[in-house]
Write a structure and sequence with these properties.
heterotrimer, A mainly alpha (281), B alpha/beta (316), C mainly alpha (71), B: 316 residues, alpha/beta, Rossmann fold, Alpha-Beta Plaits, six-stranded mixed β-sheet, C: 71 residues, mainly alpha, 3 helices, disordered N terminus
Chain lengths: 281, 316, 71
C-alpha cells in the first residue's frame, strides 16, 4: 500500500486495449474448464465412462464362464448359446451410458448455475460488462466438452475391447452412433443447465432434467410411429446406427432437428430466466 | 463539476412492498458519497439498482448524460457487503479473470491485477486459494476486483460493517486513498464511517430520502445549541428536574415561538435542552437553579452533533 | 468349440486388469480429495469406508455429494 503504487494505479486513464465479446466468452469458457479440472471432474467423469465402456464387452465375454461356474445349467446349453455380436455389445454399452452415464452427467451439471447464484459469486460476475448469453453459453460449452470427451473416451474404449474380445465393428458405425448419442446427451446437459438456472435446488435440477429425458424416450418408445420424429427417438437411432441394421426413415432427420430446436430453446429460455431474475442489461 | 450520475424518481417495489419510493439524487464526479440509513431503509436495493443487478420498477438513472441501458456496468466497480468468490481460484487469478471480463486482454489484466493486489496489501497471499482468506482479505480482494477496469464510479454496499476492528481500519484506510482518484458511493448504517470519509451524504429512511447534501453544510445548517444538565440523585433534585421539564414542555406547547427552549428530553437522569438562544437560556436556567437551591452535578453548554441529527432524522 | 478351455488365468487377468486399475485410480483420487477436504458432508471416516468398499459407486458418490464449499 505504498504511495507510489497509488499513483501508478491510475484509476483515471484507460490504458488497456479492449477485447471483443468473443474474448470475454473465451475467458469465461477457460474459467469453467479450469474449474472442471481443479475439481477433478475432467478426470473422474471420463474415467467412469471408460469403466462403463469396458465393463460391457468384458462381462459379455465372461458371461458363459460365469454361468458355467454357477453350474446349474444342463450340459450343452452353454456351448449352444449364441455368441453376441460386437454391434450388440456396443448397443448395450450405449444403454449403460443412457442410465448410469445420464445420472452422472446430470448430477455433475446440476449446480452449474444455481451454485454460483446461491453462493453470491454470480452477482460479482454479472455486474461486469458481459452478456448473459456468454455467461450461460460458457457454462454450456464447458459441460459439452466434458460430456463429449467422456462419451468419446468411454465409447472408444468399449469399441477397442469389443474388437479384442468379441468381434470387430466398422469404425464408421462407431462414429455415426457416437454423434447421434452425443446429441442425445447434449440435450440432457442443456436441459440440466436450463433447470439449474430456473431452480434454486441443484437436486431439483438434476431430477427435472433426468425426468424430461426419461419422458422423451418413454414417449418415443410407446408411440414409435407418431413420435418417431421426437428427440426421444435419438437413443434408439444410435443403437440402430451401430447395429448396422439401420432403418433411418424420414424421421431420423426430424429427430435431429427437433433435438437441436429444444437445445436452442432451452438455452434461450435460460438466458431469459436469468435476465428476468437479475435484470442485468 | 459535472454530474457522473443522476438518479430521478428511482422506485422499486417487491410485490406490494415498496422498498425504495422515488428517490432523486446526483453524484458529482470526484465526490465521495455515503448512502446512510438504518438497516432495512432500502440502501442495498438502491445500490443494486445502480449497478444494474436489479431492475427498477420506475425512475431513471442517467450516467454521463445518457440513460442507463446496461452499459453502465463498464463504468462501475461493485463491491457487495460480503462478496463471494470462487474458492478454488487464487486471489490473483480472480482479479485477472475480473479484468478479462471487463474486456482487458490477458496480458493487461495480469499486469493490472498484480498492481492492485500489491495496492490492497494482498501480494503475499496472491497465489493462495481464496477459500482460505479471512473476511478482511476477502473485502480487500473485492476492492481489487472492483477496481481492475479503472471504473469511473466505485460502488460499495456496507464495505466495512462485517469486519473486525482491524480489518475495518485497513479497508477504511484504503478507501481514503481511493477516493482521491475515483468517485465513490457507499452505503453504511454507521454515521461515523460516513463522516470520516465522505463529502456528501444521503440519509435514507423507509425507502425515501430524509436528508441530503454536503456533510459540512448539513453540519452547519442543523447545528443547534444545547444545554445538558445533570443533578445529584436525591429525591428533591430529581423531583424538581421532572417538574421543570414538564413546565418547559407546557410552555413550548403554549407558545412555541417565544419559548427559549425548543426541546427538552430527560434521559438517564441527564436533561438535554435544545435551545434557541444560548445566552438567554443559560441565564434563565442558572437563575432558576440558584433560586430553588438545586444541587447541580454538571452543567454543560454545547452544540448538537451530526449523530443527534442522524438519530432524529431516522427515528422521526 | 469350448470357450472354457481357451481362457487361462493370466489371459483373464490381462483383460480384467485395466478395469481394476481404473477403479483404483478413481478410489485413490477420491481418498486424496476426501483427506484434503476441509469439510465433508457427514463424517470423514464414513466417506472413507464408502470409497473403500463402495467400488466405483462409492467414489462417484463422494465426488458428487461428499464435498462442501466447492464454489
Amino acid at each position: 500500500m505504498s504511495v507510489s503504487a497509488a499513483h501508478n494505479g491510475n484509476v483515471e486513464k484507460r490504458s488497456f486495449n479492449r477485447t471483443s465479446e468473443i474474448g470475454r466468452f473465451a475467458a469465461m469458457v477457460e474459467k469453467e474448464l479450469l474449474e472442471l479440472l481443479r475439481s477433478f471432474k475432467l478426470l473422474w467423469v471420463p474415467l467412469v465412462f471408460i469403466l462403463l465402456g469396458i465393463m460391457q464387452p468384458v462381462s459379455s465375454y465372461f458371461m458363459p464362464i460365469i454361468l458355467e461356474q454357477a453350474g446349474n445349467l444342463p450340459e450343452g446349453v452353454i456351448a449352444n448359446m449364441p455368441k453376441p455380436q460386437g454391434a450388440e455389445v456396443l448397443a448395450q454399452t450405449l444403454q449403460q451410458f443412457g442410465t448410469l452415464g445420464v445420472l452422472v452427467l446430470a448430477l455433475v451439471c446440476m449446480g452449474v448455475v444455481s451454485g454460483e447464484r446461491n453462493s453470491g459469486a454470480a452477482s460479482l460476475i454479472l455486474v461486469k460488462p458481459i452478456s448473459l448469453y456468454s455467461y450461460i453459453g460458457s457454462k454450456w460449452t464447458a459441460m459439452l466438452v466434458l460430456t463429449w470427451g467422456s462419451l468419446a473416451a468411454g465409447y472408444l474404449a468399449a469399441w477397442y475391447y469389443t474388437g479384442l474380445l468379441i468381434g470387430s465393428v466398422p469404425f464408421k458405425d462407431i462414429v455415426s452412433s457416437l454423434l447421434i448419442y452425443g446429441l442425445w446427451l447434449t440435450l440432457l446437459v442443456t436441459l440440466t443447465v436450463f433447470f439449474s438456472t430456473m431452480l434454486k435446488s441443484p437436486a431439483g435440477a438434476a431430477f427435472s432434467s433426468i425426468g424430461c429425458i426419461a419422458v422423451f424416450s418413454l414417449l418415443a418408445g410407446i408411440f414409435p410411429k407418431q413420435l418417431g420424429w421426437s428427440p426421444g427417438a435419438l437413443s434408439g437411432f444410435a443403437y440402430q446406427a451401430v447395429s448396422a441394421s439401420i432403418m433411418k426413415g424420414d424421421y431420423f432427420g426430424w429427430a435431429i432437428v427437433s433435438a437441436l430446436a429444444i437445445i436452442a430453446g432451452a438455452l434461450a429460455a435460460a438466458v431469459w430466466l436469468l435476465r428476468r431474475s437479475s435484470s442485468v442489461e | 463539476m459535472t454530474a457522473l450520475i443522476q438518479v430521478k424518481g428511482l422506485t422499486k417495489s417487491f410485490g406490494t412492498v415498496q422498498a425504495v419510493t422515488g428517490i432523486d439524487f446526483t453524484i458529482e464526479e470526484g465526490h465521495c458519497v455515503a448512502l446512510l440509513g438504518p438497516n432495512g431503509a432500502g440502501k442495498t436495493t438502491t445500490i443494486r439498482m445502480i449497478t444494474g443487478l436489479l431492475k427498477q420498477t420506475s425512475g431513471q438513472m442517467i450516467f454521463h448524460g445518457a440513460e442507463a441501458d446496461g452499459n453502465q456496468r463498464q463504468l462501475i466497480g461493485y463491491l457487495p457487503q460480503s462478496p463471494a468468490f470462487y474458492n478454488w481460484m487464487t486471489g490473483l487469478e480472480y482479479v485477472i479473470y475480473a479484468g478479462r471480463l471487463c474486456g482487458m486482454t490477458a496480458v493487461d489484466a495480469k499486469k493490472k491485477a498484480k498492481e492492485l493486489m500489491e495496492r490492497v496489501g494482498l501480494s503475499h497471499a496472491a497465489k493462495r486459494k481464496i477459500g482460505g482468506y479471512s473476511g478482511g482479505m476477502k473485502q480487500r480482494l473485492g476492492l481489487a476486483q472492483a477496481l481492475v477496469h479503472s471504473p469511473k464510479l466505485l460502488v460499495m454496499d456496507e464495505p466495512v460493517s462485517a469486519l473486525d476492528p482491524l480489518g475495518r481500519r485497513e479497508v477504511l484506510g484504503l478507501l481514503r486513498e481511493l477516493k482521491q482518484e475515483t468517485t465513490v458511493l457507499f452505503s453504511t448504517h454507521v454515521l461515523h464511517d460516513a463522516e470520516e470519509l465522505c463529502d456528501d451524504v444521503i440519509i435514507i429512511r423507509d425507502g425515501g430520502i430524509a436528508l441530503q447534501g454536503a456533510i459540512s453544510s448539513i453540519r452547519e445548517e442543523h447545528r443547534k445549541p444545547i444545554i445538558e444538565l445533570q443533578l445529584e440523585e436525591d429525591d428533591q433534585s430529581q423531583r424538581w428536574l421532572s417538574s421543570y421539564i414538564a413546565q418547559m414542555q407546557a410552555a413550548m406547547q403554549r407558545n412555541a415561538e417565544s419559548s427559549l427552549i425548543m426541546e427538552a428530553v430527560l434521559n438517564d437522569n441527564i436533561a438535554r435542552f435544545t435551545v434557541k438562544e444560548i445566552e438567554a437560556a443559560r441565564q434563565s436556567l442558572l437563575e432558576d437553579l440558584t433560586r430553588e437551591r438545586v444541587k447541580v452535578r454538571r452543567l454543560e453548554v454545547g452544540y448538537t452533533s451530526l449523530e443527534d441529527l442522524f438519530m432524529k432524522v431516522v427515528t422521526a | 468349440m469350448n470357450i472354457n478351455n481357451s481362457i487361462d488365468l493370466s489371459q483373464m487377468l490381462s483383460i480384467v486388469l485395466p478395469l481394476i486399475i481404473i477403479q483404483l485410480i478413481l478410489m485413490v483420487i477420491a481418498l486424496v480429495l476426501c483427506a484434503k477436504a476441509e469439510q465433508t458432508r457427514g463424517p470423514k471416516w464414513m466417506w472413507i469406508l464408502i470409497i473403500l468398499f463402495g467400488n466405483m459407486f462409492g467414489s462417484i458418490a463422494f465426488f458428487i455429494f461428499g464435498r462442501r464449499n466447492e464454489g
